Amino acid sequence: MKLQRFVAALAGCSALAFGVAACGDNNTDSGSSSASTNAADNQNLSGTIRIDGSSTVQPIAEAAAELFNGEAPNVKITVGGAGTGDGFKRFCRGETTISDASRAIEPDELAACKKASIEPVQVQVGIDGLSVVANKDLAIPNDCITTAQLKKLLAPKSKVANYKELGEGFPDQKVSFFTPGTESGTYDYFTEAVLETDAEQRTKDVQTSADDNQIITGIEGTTGALGYVGFSFADQQKDKLKILQVDGGDGCVAPAVETIADGTYKPLSRPLFMYPSTKTVAKPEVKGYVAYILDNNKEIVEAADYVPLTDELLTQAKADLDAAKPVETAAK
To answer: What number of other Cβ atoms are within 10 A of residue 172's Cβ?
Structure first.
């Protein structure tokens, strides 16, 4: 796979040159912030970093872990993908060092952390776009669907049973959906951005999973199936699925690195985060790991098939890591 080839090549280069920066251009000046890695210093690090949360952010965390271990072999890093919501539950119980998230921490999650005297620190590590995907045989007109049509299909009280109910040109085909579940930040983002609700999406004719691979398999094998996953997962499986364009009000736009980065793929572009705590980020191995992701953001994030931070966002992320200021107000 693309990510595995990248890790192998970059790890080999790192071993020869004491760090990724020696192997090619980066999108940052790593000396511009104290949140920067030094390969020689990293060799002296030790400890354990336990990461869980968003399955969307998981490929970034895994790639970075393998590469970082090339410089810091005495740091043990484990990465899970239980979903953003379940990840925050573990984090706020003190079971993990870093919580990956495909959305910002929410008020009830922040309250749970505060109750346990855990203070989350928010650091953005990339940008993603949700992809709306369908079975290859599902004949959506022009392979484009509007957010209004998605809302009609998946709104909490939706009773749409056949795609032909969406209007002229839609097939006479029973609806079937495979989507993330309520534990997923992808689910949360979709329901808020597209369905414009805090309530759960429809449940009839919908199968949910925290595993994006199961969603892909379900859509591929089910006539009339439609769903949504992170851009990376859809892009990696594009030979098995139909990736739909989305019309958010300004015409049909396909999910792509360029459209996600420039904001034209709306409303399904979103930030990706890692949350250490004020206590864990004070540990050199934890700050070193997150700083490594920011210093090598373009290479790592693009290899994971996401969109790297802009210069402005990267500067802010490094400042947030350096300041280690706890989140005071959660997203609503």
So the answer is: 9
Residue type present at position 261: A
137's CB contacts (< 8 A; 6+ apart) are: 223
Instruction: Classify domain 2-127+273-323 by CATH architecture.
Output: 3-Layer(aba) Sandwich (3.40)
Which residue type, as a one-letter code, is found at position 18?
F
pTM score of the predicted model:
0.74
Q: At what angle do helices 58-71 and 2-17 cross, to 10 degrees?
A: 20
Are the C-beta atoms of 20 and 30 separated by less than 8 Å?
Answer: no
DSSP code string of 80-124: --S-HHHHHHHHHTT--SEEEESSPPPHHHHHHHHHTT--B--EE
Cis peptide leading into residue 267 (ω within 30°): yes
So what's the architecture of 128-269 in CATH? Answer: 3-Layer(aba) Sandwich (3.40)
pLDDT tens for 16-48 read 333 333 343 444 443 344 566 677 889 999 999
**pLDDT, tens only, 56-107:** 899 999 999 999 999 999 999 999 999 999 999 999 999 999 999 999 999 9
